Amino acid sequence: MFDTESNLRLLQNGNLLPLVEDFYTIQGEGFHSGKPAYFIRLGGCDICCRWCDAKFTWNPKNYPPVEVKKIVERASSFPAQAAVITGGEPALYPLEMLCNELKSKNIQTFIETSGAYPLTGTWDWICLSPKRQQPPLADIFQAAGELKVIIETTDDLLWAEENAAKTSKNCMLFLQSEWSRYNEITPVIVEYAKQNPKWNISIQAHKFMNIP
Question: What is the mean pLDDT of the chain?
């Protein structure tokens, strides 16, 4: 599904990116929940979580490369002060050009990544969302401003703690229920956070607001 070398050649070192969609909305998760932001969703992911709610992004071949300048031109046409780069797994691609162009328009750069690949670009906020099947690289833990762990079963709480132990003391820690298990697992997360108050709870507020 994903051929890194051929895709990088096609993308001209980050001047082009496989854009799935881009839109202005309200951030629904994590530390910046409630903040207006321009979302830039890139195609391509080989981590492939079974519960992923964006499986349509996995194959980058479904999304012809788009010029970064055109993406940023659209972003800057809105009053957004921040752009969230997500996927898929956005760190599969060179992101220096995208970051530079956004910053030239005074737009802050936020990213959500599994941390499984080296991160390029200059970031105002890094949300690390680790996945068991392809754990994060060691160096991203200290760079992350936010650790957001998806909780599907109680076993995932141990995984959350393993990752939290590697982050900086200033990293914000969030537990977020896997959406299809929201009713079952949320009470467990609530009690866990009450007993372990270093953790915050992230709710997918955009789904309750019926916005993208």
Answer: 94
Is the separation of the CB atoms in 53 and 41 below 8 Å? no
Instruction: Identify each DSSP E strand in 63-120 by its residue range.
Output: 65-67, 82-86, 108-113
CA distance 84 to 67: 17
Q: Are 117 and 124 in contact (CB under 8 A)?
A: no
The DSSP secondary structure of 134-178, one letter per residue, reads SPPPTTHHHH-SEEEEEESSTHHHHHHHHHHTTS-TT-EEEEEE-
Report how far apart, in Å, the C-alpha atoms of 61 and of each of 74, 124, 145 are: 23, 29, 31
CA distance 156 to 191: 14
**Per-residue CA distances from 72 to 11, 84, 99, 200 (Å):** 16, 12, 9, 32
Residue 54 to residue 107: CA distance in whole angstroms: 25
- What pLDDT was estimated at residue 8? 55
136 vs 127: CA distance, rounded Å? 12
Please state the rounded mean pLDDT for residues 70-91.
97
Amino acid of residue 130: P
The overall pTM is greater than 0.85: yes
Domains (ranges, CATH) in the chain?
Answer: 4-209 (3.20.20.70)
CA 74-76-78 angle, to 5 degrees, is 85
Tens digits of per-residue pLDDT, 180-210? Answer: 999 999 999 999 999 999 999 999 999 999 9
